[in-house]
Amino acid sequence: MCESIFGYTEEEILFKHIRLLLPKKAKTPHLFFDEAMAGTHITDSYKPGKLSSAVRKDGRELMIELRMSSLKFNGHKSIILFIKDVTELVKDKQQISTQIKKFKAIAWQHSHVIRRPLANI
Residue 16 and residue 19: Cα distance in Å, rounded? Predict the structure, then answer.
């Protein structure tokens, strides 16, 4: 799955730090990951994950949804990441939001500009 989303093989990504997938241009450290490693920010599986930008091996950016869970095994703490590519979903939501704004402008114009002269007749 990591190969289809990020372009890395399992051998290239397994046991690597999550920052490998973060954009280099990020101005602030991703505290979400640091908190997760400290165990202070674990996402319940039924709650929506955190949206974040990520970068593929080829340098292209994408939007991902992250869910994290902690696991203790033989006294060692591990973090399991569940990552979903939501790039298209985010683009679709932005497009819908833009269309809604346009429709609201048309509705306002229809109710105030066009109907006003008719009401005066």
Answer: 8
Q: Which two tokens stand for residue 120?
A: 């005066």
pTM (whole model) above 0.85: no
**Residues 57-83, buried b or exposed e (16+ Cβ, 10 A)?**
eeeeebbbbbbbeeeeeeeeeeeeeeb
pLDDT digits (tens, 9 = 90+) for 26-48: 544 455 555 555 554 454 544 56
Spatial distance between the Cα atoms of 6 and 2, rounded to a whole number of angstroms: 6
Say whether 9 sits in a helix, a strand or coil: coil
DSSP string, 21-73: GS-TT-SS--HHHHHHHHTS----TTS--EEEEEE-TTS-EEEEEEEEEEEEE
Other beta carbons less than 10 A from residue 7's beta carbon: 15
Q: What is the secondary structure of 77-88 as a DSSP string? A: EEEEEEEEE-HH
Distance CA 24, CA 8 (A): 17
